[in-house]
Amino acid sequence: MTSTETPGRATESATLDAVTTAPASSNGSLYGRLWRMVPRELGFLLPNLPIVIVANVLLWVGISTGFGLLVTFVGIFIVIATLYTARGFGTLELVRLRGAGRPEIRRPNWNPRRVTGFWANIFSTVLNPHYWLYLVHGLVVNIAVGVVTWAISFTWVVTGLSGVTYWIYSRWIPTGDRGWRLYDWVRGSFFPSWNMDAQSADNLLYFVLGAIFLATLPFVTRGLTVVHYGIARGMLGRFRVAELEGEVAGLSASRTAAVSAEGTSLRRLERDIHDGPQQRLVRMQMDLASADRQLANDPDRARVLIAEALEQSREALEELRALSRGFAPPILLDRGLVAAIESLADRSPIPVRIVNVLQPGTDLPQEIERNAYFVASEMLTNVAKHSGASDIELRLELRRLPEPDATWLDVVVADNGSGGAVAQPGHGLAGLEERLRGLGGTLEISSPDGGPTMISAHLPVTY
């Protein structure tokens, strides 16, 4: 019933290498990686001049007009519009920095108090310090920094390209228009005895100069981009206090979700025990009591009742074993997650193909393995009950993200069923979603009507 694919196969090895070796090998040396980022960084730096000039003009006109007309009451709306314009240019700066390869900066919470109503929004905008920081950034800081960084990056690119190509077009420059020569300056300042054809010497010197500028270009673009990033992080990002408040709120929500999920699991376990093993044990007790009364007068009837009691005890034991698998089956503790998942797949009424992209010998925390097993079990059960599928693929994969430094275990179940799966309160997927949220993970559901369905559980791995 199961088909297990191991990392030894070429396609999965390629996927694993791409996941687990970044950023350690990152295809080359540090200098090579810097060069690969140059086009993106120049795409940020070279458009700086027109962007900061347009932003500066619009913001100065808007804020000066708005404050000048405050006495007419119209000015407040112009000031508000200017603040929103500053927000737009600041957001554009963050988007462009992300496009330049910088880590994402968390944006401010523009409506922290969730106010509603026209006047409430007006006053909330005026009193929000982020709007004024964005305005100062566009009015003063970004114009000063942007002009300087544009001038440096433009000069570096033009000097480098024109230097290394000077030997191509220098022959068409009229001799009378040359004026100052680099060769004359170098010979007069450093090498008085240097005798060489002036044209050839200029070609050589300009080529060397251009090559130096191009060789150092990656360091220049990275440094200038980092300057913009540092300023944006300090002025355009979310305040650290707000981040901490968000983290506290997230932890509180995770704790609530975990408690709720645990409560749901306990109630379901209680119901399953009541409806299953407990009823069978009551029936077995009644059969044994009846057999005891019949033993002297009707031994044959007593033997039948004892046989029924034995059957009830066997079924109760099987149900208890099945329920215990929801906690931690022995195979999970003895042989690990992959073997436990294979055991799950063997018991599935629908054929399951396991795609294992975990490296051999991968050591996961026991709590992560237990939760991953529970999640896989619940997803397979959900597919068997509701999907009408004839084929299931279960994928296990470990992802390592360089920014931020984090490791995630993905448990992905895909089926060819009828689709339409949603997380409804009180049902299996909603319980899974709560459990994962309590662990700091997420659940993604892609299930259009008609199928196919793909449910992805992402569990954070902390060693």
Which tags fit this structure?
disordered N terminus; Heat Shock Protein 90; 3 domains; alpha/beta; elongated
Summarize the structure.
This protein is α/β, with parallel strands linked by helices.
Blueprint (SSEs and pairs):
Elements (H helix, E strand, L loop, with lengths): L1 E4 L4 H11 L9 H16 L2 H21 L6 H25 L18 H10 L1 H36 L1 H4 L12 H8 L8 H38 L4 H36 L1 H18 L4 H26 L5 H6 L1 H11 L4 E5 L9 H21 L5 E10 L4 E10 L12 H11 L3 E5 L6 E8 L3
Parallel strand pairs: 1-2, 2-3
Antiparallel strand pairs: 3-4, 4-6, 5-6
Helix pairs in contact: 2-9, 3-4, 3-6, 4-6, 4-9, 6-9, 10-16, 11-12, 14-15
What is the strand tally?
Answer: 6
Total individual domains:
3
Strand coverage percent = 5-15%
User: Reading side by side through the largest sheet, how are the strands ordered?
Assistant: 1-2-3-4-6-5
Main β-sheet description: 6 strands, mixed
Radius of gyration: 35 Å
Q: Kindly, what is the distance between the CA atoms of the first and last residues, rounded to a whole number of angstroms?
A: 33 Å
- Please tell me what the overall shape is: elongated
Q: How many DSSP H or I helices?
A: 16
Overall mean confidence score, pLDDT: 77
Question: What is the string of SSEs from the N terminus onward?
Answer: EHHHHHHHHHHHHHHEHEEHEE
Percentage of residues in helical conformation: 55-70%
Structural class: alpha/beta
Q: Which segments are poorly predicted (pLDDT under 50) over 5 or more consecutive residues?
A: 1-27
